[in-house]
Amino acid sequence: MKPARCRFDIPLSRGGAIRILPLGRWAKPYLVEGLARTSPETQTRRFGAPRAGFTPAELDHLTRVDGRTVLALGARDLVTGRGAGVARWMRDGATSAEAAILIVDEFARRGVGRWLMGGLVVSAKRAGLARLHGETHADNHAMLGLAAWFGARTRFAGGGRTLLELDVPPAWPAGEAGEFLSRIERHVDGRA
To answer: Is-contact 5 73, C-beta < 8 A?
Structure first.
């Protein structure tokens, strides 16, 4: 299957605009800079503890993508050029992949996560994946709400963690989420 192109510009709620684009080796400084602009609380929700930065090996791992076994998307602020968020899936089975999202604090609750998650779902479908899964803190209401909006199932995992599982539909469902995914697919196909 051909990987999704997934590069498009989107206006944000409360003003501004972002560009969604696939990440590669060039994105290492953006990841470092974006992490530095996230709060210890946000870092803990994503990584389990605050982070001082990424090691060179971690940066290599995070930016080594091929669109078939690993895909990473970034959101870049079109005004400042700075990173607004990152989302990634990594295949861990024939038809499943682990997914994760991190949004820089100043871009929280502005729609960045929805666009990145939608891009992950569209690209997962293009790569032949049937399921995305991940985990988050049980009190991460923003992520739990975002996952629920896309139809993910949740299960408490103990230790303050919640497991998320999202089936990638072969056809987009009727309703708001399906229309949203269709819109992203049109961007990916260059029809928007």
So the answer is: no
